[in-house]
Amino acid sequence: MYQIRKKVAEISVYLYQQGLAPGKSGNISLRKDDVVAITPTNVSLRDIDGEAVALVNLEGEILSEGIVPSSELQLHLMIYREREGVEGVVHIHSPYATGFALAGKKIKILEGFGPVQEEYLEMVGYAPPGSEILAQMVKNGLKKEDALILEGHGLVAVGPSLEEAALLSEWVEKTAKTIFISKMLQK
Ligand SMILES: [Zn+2]
Question: CATH assignment of 2-185?
Fold first, then answer.
């Protein structure tokens, strides 16, 4: 299990370094069989090492004593229970994508979103962070898509591996930035 915890730690630090998870924001997880390794609550992704990563089963029972998982644990677990084949989930409040989310503006899909089907990235309405209703809405929104904007909040990306989910989240953020720049230049 150390390998999957180490992988979560590596990708956490990567996301922080890319500016995608400022402060103590953001949570990510990786599924292997019936076990989910997820970032702990209230720790910056910058500071996470393998031993800080929580382990839970798909029902949410904590397997790593003394480590409290992210407050968005339910959101991660619901996605894994719904989407066979998803092995990585990334939830971040990256600046540009979250700016679009706060303004309630959709992000147009540029080349490179892979399996995302719609012309605009899907956005789900606002629900409080950490709530069951947010987890439900995200689960439903991700039935057909691999990336989703949460209105007034941030984004979620999933993939067949945690690396893929992280790269997709990075792509969404950079796309939001590109669209923002393009709109500024048109003024
Ligand atoms: Zn959040």
Answer: 3.40.225.10
